[in-house]
Amino acid sequence: MTPHVPALTLNDGRSIPQMGFGLWQVPAGRTAELVAEATEVGYRQFDGAALYGNEEGLGEGVRRCGLPREEVFVTTKIWNDRHGFDSTLRAAEESFARLGLDRLDLLLIHWPAPARNKYVETWKALIRLREEGRVTSIGVSNFAPEHLDRIVGETGVVPVLNQIELHPELPQATLRRKHAELGIVTQSWTPLGQSRTFDSQPVRRAAERTGATSAQVILAWHVALGCAVIPRSTKAERLAENLAALEIRLTPEEVADIERLENGHRTGPDPLTFS
């Protein structure tokens, strides 16, 4: 029996499955197979990007799985070197071609790349694509509060989602509050924090109480925070194990104790400087 995957409502009235399959570092040659296998255990959301080099496999996996297109939620992203209005439109068309899809469920700006200073024009291109019906929903990734304020202030359009690095060592409480104020869904990348807190006391205590693994406890923590989350694995059994974390219920005290593991550690670049 596959777990029920709850959906989070986006500010444009659409919805997104709360847990998805992140395709970062998934080998291109295995992507189609893994996407199809993931649908068999219950996944309906797949998070890709032009940078990942596996959009062809993502699209093939969506076609191979046999599900109606409207039942599979597909995300991809515009990379930093394609920022700018016209360049973004071209990059999106290239992603459509690689995916073999004529519509995307969600298109994100991968990073604000502030030194390039083109993310507002890039955002305007995403708005155009949404207006044309090529993209159903539009959002951002790795945007800080000042980046969000600028694109909303200059266009009046609020992203439906901001995909950010978020794990027990970097719980991003301030940014999550900003998202709540604006009605933006928080989506967590590198949700397990490279396993650095698996042996911490709060995680181990919750694992012992629930009979879950440390990874499942941390994924359940993301869900308890109200975040969407996109763990990655190349093993079918681990994909199922991750999805089973949706059945785990942490206590408010456990959620708070895990959040207190914060130390500011990032596994990836700083959005304020990375361009």
Spell out the blueprint of helices and strands.
Elements: E1 7-9, E2 15-17, E3 21-22, H1 28-41, E4 45-47, H2 55-64, E5 73-78, H3 85-99, E6 104-109, H4 119-131, E7 135-141, H5 145-155, E8 161-165, H6 173-182, E9 185-189, H7 201-210, H8 214-225, E10 228-229, H9 236-244, H10 252-259
Parallel strand pairs: 3-4, 4-5, 5-6, 6-7, 7-8, 8-9, 9-10
Antiparallel strand pairs: 1-2
Helix pairs in contact: 1-2, 1-9, 2-3, 3-4, 4-5, 7-8
- The quaternary structure here is single chain
CATH class of the domain at 15-193 and 226-232: Alpha Beta
Any idea what the shape is?
globular
Strand element count: 10
CATH topology of the domain at 15-193 and 226-232: TIM Barrel
* Biggest sheet descriptor: 8 strands, parallel
What is the SS-derived class?
Answer: alpha/beta
Distance between the ends = 44 Å
Mean pLDDT across residues: 97
- What is the helix tally? 10
Uncertain residue segments: none
Order of helices and strands: EEEHEHEHEHEHEHEHHEHH
CATH superfamily of the domain at 15-193 and 226-232: NADP-dependent oxidoreductase domain
Instruction: Specify Rg, calculated over alpha carbons.
Output: 18 Å
Active site: 52 (proton donor)
GO molecular function: oxidoreductase activity, acting on the CH-OH group of donors, NAD or NADP as acceptor
Family: Belongs to the aldo/keto reductase family.
Binding site for substrate: 110
